[in-house]
């Protein structure tokens, strides 16, 4: 037998290198190269003798009939929204998240929900003993007859067991990092092992129409530990996120071959497991302190769903040569941009001030539409003026200082109305979409809110400062 070739695989990015080195050439991570045999695993080329046995496959026209992907909704609305209306039979999902965030809890609840509709579910735990999983299921009220449980890590054993019985509707593997297979001779948890094990499980799922859910742990820097490669192999990747000390959790789609990728599901971790949060705005605005300056409510959008959150700013004179800028929950370069626009176009001097920005409740915003709310919070904090408590803010700010309309104006306004706000501060032109080109077909958005249309950011700053009783800080 030929001597198997040795190669070194980066456990962070999967890059293969013929020599060991302390640092991966591809991703720059230190101490991530691990010795693996080149002849095993999915990446290795088939031998010449096997290639000779290939046979012709049947080609079909792209323009064939398609059946709509049938779906198995779990009945957990927040989960079904994120998957795009339910699990698709024969598809593979990866659920990633930090340890202890609640992945096993979520999946046990999903398993119970599907089992209650008469579907067969198999839950394979590679991390916990059967008794531990049973204990959690009891706590969650998820003890269902249709859920078969096993504590196992060998892919061969799992597949052999599955072959004995009828293929289940849902198969949960908790977690992919614990699986190992005889066909790859690297240590469990290495890229080759995880990739080979995941591929074997995915092959089973596609063949028997089983929904496969793989759990993956995430490293500190937000990557699924080691097996980033698995992300490419599955049909959907969901991330389960939450901030330390906060009890709510957000399920986010990163990739979805069968649905939207910008939806979120919001849950609340309680003593009896995860509870759905149908109205996240109420949660994020729940502990609002309405009397402090520097707080502005932003009407945001996550996917198709409006989410209202409070943006808090603290602007204080700095004792440092280079003032401090700290941001939690938003993009720090976006903050620098808003600060620069305030300085350049609005006469708001922040060069001698420390600036802290926080999105309340540990929520994270990715939209540029938060620019206006951030600017309002900054000016309000600097001037020591409370913003009107009944106002919501949204809109993008360009480098020229102009306020630019953003998408989903109607949904944002509706949500603000629903939650009892009385006023929306928004870019000019938001209410009559498309009118600039002179070919507007859409009617003007009607609302019961008082609307304040802003053309330039300086208008907004001036409006806020006009309420100031102290001398303007801009000198
Ligand atoms: P778990 O699902 O085990 O996390 P993961 O699988 O992502 O590692 O959840 C662990 C945490 O959730 C643990 O700190 C306890 C907490 N928890 C509750 O608060 N309530 C519950 O009903 C359950 C089952 C767990
Ligand atoms: Mg777990």
Report what the structure shows.
The structure is a single chain. Helix content is 26%, strand content 24%. The protein contains 12 helices and 21 strands. It has 3 domains: 1-39; 77-278, 3-Layer(aba) Sandwich (Rossmann fold), CATH 3.40.50; 283-432 and 444-465, Ribosomal Protein S5, domain 2, CATH 3.30.230. The longest helix is centred in the middle third of the chain and has 18 residues, at 191-208. The protein is globular and about 75 Å long. The model is unreliable at 468-475 (pLDDT under 50). The chain starts with 5 loop residues before the first strand and ends in a 9-residue tail after the last helix. It has 475 residues and is α/β, with parallel strands linked by helices. The strands form 4 sheets. The protein has a 9-stranded mixed beta sheet with strand order 6-5-7-8-4-9-10-11-12, sandwiched between helices. It has a 7-stranded mixed beta sheet with strand order 15-16-14-13-17-20-21. The protein binds thymidine-5'-diphosphate and magnesium ion (MG).
Which key terms come to mind for this protein?
single chain, 21 strands, 475 residues, 7-stranded mixed beta sheet, binds thymidine-5'-diphosphate, 26% helix, Rossmann fold, binds magnesium ion, Ribosomal Protein S5, domain 2, alpha/beta
Condensed summary:
26% of the residues lie in helices and 24% in strands. With 475 residues, it is of the alpha/beta class. Residues 468-475 have low confidence and may be disordered.
List the SSEs and their pairings:
Elements: E1 6-10, E2 16-17, E3 33-37, H1 48-52, H2 77-83, E4 92-97, H3 103-116, E5 121-125, H4 130-140, E6 147-151, H5 155-164, E7 170-174, H6 191-208, E8 211-217, H7 229-233, E9 236-241, E10 248-256, E11 264-270, E12 273-276, H8 280-285, E13 295-302, E14 305-317, E15 325-328, H9 332-346, E16 353-359, H10 371-383, E17 391-393, E18 396-397, E19 403-404, H11 409-418, E20 423-427, E21 450-454, H12 457-466
Parallel strand pairs: 4-8, 4-9, 5-6, 5-7, 7-8, 13-17, 15-16, 17-20, 20-21
Antiparallel strand pairs: 1-2, 1-3, 9-10, 10-11, 11-12, 13-14, 14-16, 18-19
Helix pairs in contact: 9-12, 10-12
The structure holds thymidine-5'-diphosphate and magnesium ion.
